[in-house]
Write a structure and sequence with these properties.
115 residues; Methyltransferase, Methionine Synthase (B12-binding Domains), Chain A, domain 1; 58% helix
């Protein structure tokens, strides 16, 4: 189990738009034998949620939002970005191939059931 302080640090690195340090933290935490999905779900995703809240309040703007998104997935080989689903359970944003149809195709290829 990843310590709460480390998960809080992961979230803060996303808010700070720091992909290098986020990647360094991810490598260290995963290298210690921790579950990468725990880091993603309990560290990085809360960070991007906080960025969204700041954006909605007008405290961050598009460049900062994009910087945080870049920091969100510092290790795309460990957690491929096509597996990131919106909080509403729907597919959102994908820059590979033909966009969302490609994302859906990749997920189905991996055996995901689309609702």
């Amino acid at each position: 189990m990843i310590p709460k302080e480390v998960l809080a640090e992961a979230a803060q690195l996303i808010v700070a738009q720091n992909p290098e340090k986020a990647a360094e933290l991810a490598r260290r935490v995963i290298g210690e034998g921790n579950d990468p999905l725990e880091l993603m779900n309990n560290g990085f995703i809360p960070g991007i949620n906080q960025v969204g809240e700041l954006f909605n309040r007008g405290e961050l703007f598009l460049p900062q939002l994009m910087g945080a998104a870049n920091a969100m997935n510092p290790m795309p080989i460990v957690v491929p970005c096509h597996r990131v689903i919106g909080t509403d359970g729907k597919l959102h944003g994908y820059g590979g191939g033909n966009g969302l149809p490609t994302k859906e195709w990749l997920l189905k290829l991996e055996g995901a059931v689309m609702a």
